[in-house]
Amino acid sequence: MADTALQNDDFYEEDLKARKGRPRSEKSRKAILNATNKLLLQTSVQELSIESIAKKAKVGKTTIYRWWPNKTAVVMEALASQPGLQSPMPTANNHREAIIMQLDKLIRLVDSHNGQTIAQLFSEAQASSDSLKIFKDNLLEPLMDAMRYSIEEGQRNGEFRNDIDSTIVVDILCGPVFFRLMAHPKDLTDEFREDYPSEALKILSPDNAN
């Protein structure tokens, strides 16, 4: 009986410690994301390591691996946690305007320090199927899904031509942006950002339907 009581007391103390530890764990998680963003201002994704993140955040490596499977996952969430990336876009008057806003946001994103981080992430992810999946799930797919939705809704209400596949349109719209990021980042100019979305959207004009 005494042993059972002692075990119950030990269980209660461990449970209490776990519950009390949750706020500290969330604090550590935020520290890891902040440390990652700060380090990315000084180093490339390739040079960044879990060890350097842990040291900057003042946590153990095991704490990082508790939430993320690898470095790519940490960097992706660190990028997503930045206030500018979390801010919602204004309400669009129509689906054409929505796509222009989405393309404008994408171009602004890749024409920043984060753009180089994204390019480095994409390059590094080619060597790992797990990292590539994280990259697609956290950056590419949300972007593609939002654009695809606007395109398909615009096709339904007659705003866009409906004889072209929405997935192909997304590739056509986003491809030149990512090409400039990877091959000619200096060409991601203000002029390109202002002119490209409207020019690219001409492909969806009902006048171009077969």
What does it look like?
This protein is mainly α. 73% of the residues lie in helices and 0% in strands. The longest helix has 39 residues, at 2-40. The N and C termini lie far apart (84 Å).
Key traits:
elongated, 210 residues, mainly alpha, single chain, disordered N terminus
| Count of alpha/pi helices | 10
Characterize the largest beta sheet: strand count, sense, and whether it forms a barrel.
none
Unreliably modeled segments: 1-23
Q: Helix and strand string, N-terminal first?
A: HHHHHHHHHH
- The portion of residues forming beta strands comes to under 5%
Class computed from helices, strands and strand pairing:
mainly alpha
Chart the SSEs and their pairings.
Blueprint: H1 2-40, H2 50-57, H3 61-67, H4 71-80, H5 83-86, H6 95-110, H7 113-125, H8 129-156, H9 166-183, H10 190-200
Task: Put the structure in a nutshell.
With 210 residues, the protein is an all-alpha fold. Helix content is 73%, strand content 0%.
